[in-house]
Backbone:
């Protein structure tokens, strides 16, 4: 009787072990198939190069530009500074700017929580008898060969059409220059931005 029980237990254990081994083999085969399928899938990625540089004359500059005019007066010659952007990268770029601050004689206007870059730009266009112009000839630069010129200029025509404002600012500019001969009459700080396009 004991022999029958031992034989029955051995047979039961062998059968159970065999079933467990078959189940493990099936799961292992499935896992290997899934792994082999995922590994054999190839992934190729191309990273586009980004290379936009800014030049003022022959000198490479950062994205921050300081435009200074030492002396202003009615009838002054047009004062100009040109910055050229070159796109040598693989993707097109858009050039824009943001005004950070403007100093006109004793008055300083800085972008903060209350004053925006657009507020200062509006002031530049409307509040002074002299004209400060910021132009970008080609804001959309193509990849690899794109070029864009940004020109910042100040011009004060002798007869701007507003004699009172010409006189007021002319006297203020004269007094400022007499008191501060080594300081700039106008100082404009800009940040040039280059962003990718699709």
Residues:
């Amino acid at each position: 009787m004991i022999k029958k029980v031992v034989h029955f237990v051995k047979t039961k254990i062998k059968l159970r072990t065999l079933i467990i081994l078959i189940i493990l083999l099936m799961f292992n085969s499935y896992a290997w198939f899934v792994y082999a399928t995922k590994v054999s899938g190839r992934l190729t990625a191309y990273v586009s190069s980004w290379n936009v540089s800014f030049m003022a004359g022959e000198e490479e500059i950062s994205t921050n530009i300081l435009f200074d005019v030492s002396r202003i007066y009615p009838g002054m010659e047009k004062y100009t500074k040109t910055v050229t952007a070159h796109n040598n990268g693989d993707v097109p770029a858009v050039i824009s700017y943001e005004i950070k601050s403007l100093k006109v004689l004793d008055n300083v206007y800085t972008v903060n929580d209350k004053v925006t870059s657009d507020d200062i730009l509006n002031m530049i266009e409307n509040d002074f008898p002299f004209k400060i112009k910021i132009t970008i000839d080609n804001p959309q630069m193509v990849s690899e060969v794109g070029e864009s010129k940004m020109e910042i200029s100040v011009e004060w025509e002798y007869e701007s059409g507003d004699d009172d404002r010409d006189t007021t600012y002319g006297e203020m500019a004269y007094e400022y220059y007499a008191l501060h001969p080594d300081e700039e009459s106008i100082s404009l700080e800009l940040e040039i931005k280059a962003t990718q396009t699709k």
The radius of gyration is 36 Å. Residues 2-40 form the longest helix (39 residues).
